[in-house]
């Protein structure tokens, strides 16, 4: 698996929590939850770069996974082809949402980017989907 590219780290202001004088970084290259490559450095994809402190960069990665899973689940709802059509991917996504919910429940995480109720709602929807008989 490709390692993500992490932009230069320097002291500045975190775009998520607003902390100042902290080490900030930007994860810009890598793979999404479903293994698809992404590049946040290309001018078309990243017109206003954001920089994050250590704690918020962890949450940003969780947010990216949440967003990927939510997008694929929306495709299912529309009857479109989705990575979640595969039972193993659906189970993997369900487990990841449980991990995300557990991680954002930790007081040390700022929760500047993710809302616990949204993560829980999507996790319940995926579990319902997983439990439904296939036709």
Characterization of this structure:
The chain has 135 residues and is of the alpha+beta class. The chain has one domain. 43% of the residues lie in helices and 14% in strands. The protein contains 3 helices and 6 strands; from the N terminus they run E-E-E-E-E-E-H-H-H. The strands form 2 sheets. The protein has a 3-stranded antiparallel β-sheet, with no helix packed on it. Strands 2-3-6 form a 3-stranded antiparallel β-sheet. Helix 1 packs antiparallel against helix 2. The longest helix is centred in the middle third of the chain and has 24 residues. The radius of gyration is 16 Å and the shape is elongated. The termini are far apart. The N terminus is likely disordered.
Name a few traits of the molecule.
135 residues; alpha+beta; three-stranded antiparallel sheet; 14% strand; disordered N terminus
**Rg (C-alpha, Å):** 16 Å
Q: Helices and strands: which structural class? A: alpha+beta
Question: What series of H and E elements makes up the topology?
Answer: EEEEEEHHH
Count of discrete alpha- or pi-helical segments spanning 4 or more residues: 3
* Termini Cα gap: 34 Å
Strand content: 5-15%
Name the strands of the widest sheet in spatial order.
1-4-5
| Number of E-type strands | 6
Give the biggest beta sheet.
3 strands, antiparallel
- Oligomeric assembly: single chain
Q: Uncertain runs with pLDDT below 50, 5 residues or more?
A: 1-6
């Amino acid at each position: 698996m490709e390692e993500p590219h992490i932009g230069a780290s320097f002291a500045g202001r975190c775009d998520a929590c607003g902390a100042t004088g902290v080490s900030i970084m930007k994860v810009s290259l890598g793979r999404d939850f479903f293994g698809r490559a992404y590049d946040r450095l290309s001018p078309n994809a990243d017109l206003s770069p954001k920089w994050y402190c250590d704690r918020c960069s962890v949450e940003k990665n969780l947010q990216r996974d949440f967003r990927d899973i939510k997008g694929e689940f929306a495709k299912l709802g529309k009857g479109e082809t989705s990575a979640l059509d595969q039972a193993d991917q659906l189970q993997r996504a369900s487990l990841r949402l449980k991990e995300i919910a557990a991680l954002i429940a930790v007081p040390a995480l700022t929760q500047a980017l993710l809302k616990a109720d949204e993560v829980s709602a999507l996790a319940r929807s995926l579990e319902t989907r997983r439990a439904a008989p296939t036709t």
